[in-house]
């Protein structure tokens, strides 16, 4: 169940935008991304699992572990970073969901969609109504949706095979273009395979069940989950990229829609026209649920820390209500304004995720006695290098303004 839960948290909207971002740079950067996807994802998430397991108090979540190892101030800072790792992803899902439904209404149903401000509000309130049914129900539904989602992604990849063409192979980037494309694609790759919002709950669950054997169990589940992610996603990405031209990928980016919505509009096939937007809707909805739970954990942690530091009582029910209202308002504003999804991934989500997921556990290996046993492992160098590359992409984005 947890393998599917981790897969379900990672594989969503990011997967549906990865072919656009990765394919625009040509075949060779995409090939390198396929090679580094597994070690990058597995080693980084394994590091975060080990970090949470290093607490002297079994059952501690990520915010409590950070406070224990780095102190109250660092705890607040990392909790803030954790929250701002997930909040932009929620905003992206709000934008992506609104654009998917709007595109479906225009192209498949031939309808004039309602004003964007009302459409986005209705969709977000619908998602929140499902979450109100209970966290366990949401996790269960996410797990159920993984099976059909994997089958459909593989099915679409196979369906597109007869339309594969060599247009992407005609692009022969210079060494400079290749390096720049790969550099700016790393944040999108980090984002697409990121399942850190579920790691805290995953590790605590393994600790409760397996005790001293929790590390071996988390490592095993994590490895299988990442193998499944990489095989399914990279097959889907290559199939999409080979079936479209670079110009069509650029059109999809300009329209700010997912690859599935674009494919549904392109292919003159009633099944594809209906199936692809439906799958995009399910994928974004599924990941929204997983990331909402993580964002709520982060925001609740921030508010609780602030109240405790002021000696005030912590009312979890009131904090939950405030968190829900805040996130509904933030997602609604973003969905109404419709910023560039790929731009947000490149400049905001990827670099912030990299700081928390790649750099913090490696820093802890140097500073936390309980983590020292992991020092000197070759995988640590890979994690630090890719994390630094992903974080540096934000500098490029800022310099390009």
From TrEMBL:
GO cellular component annotations of the record: plasma membrane
Keywords per UniProt: Amino-acid transport, Cell inner membrane, Cell membrane, Membrane, Plasmid, Symport, Transmembrane, Transmembrane helix, Transport
Membrane topology note: Multi-pass membrane protein
Subcellular location: Cell inner membrane
Highest taxon in the source lineage: Bacteria
InterPro entries reported in the protein's UniProt record: Amino_acid_transport_2, Hydroxy_aa_transpt
Gene Ontology terms for molecular function: amino acid transmembrane transporter activity; symporter activity
The keyword Magnesium is assigned to this record: no
TM annotation in the entry: 77-97, 117-134, 141-161, 181-204, 224-244, 271-293, 314-335, 341-360, 381-399
Main location: membrane
Catalytic activity: L-serine(in) + H(+)(in) = L-serine(out) + H(+)(out)
Cross-referenced NCBIfam families: stp
Record's protein name: Serine transporter
Native species: Azospirillum lipoferum (strain 4B)
Gene transcribed to yield this protein: sdaC
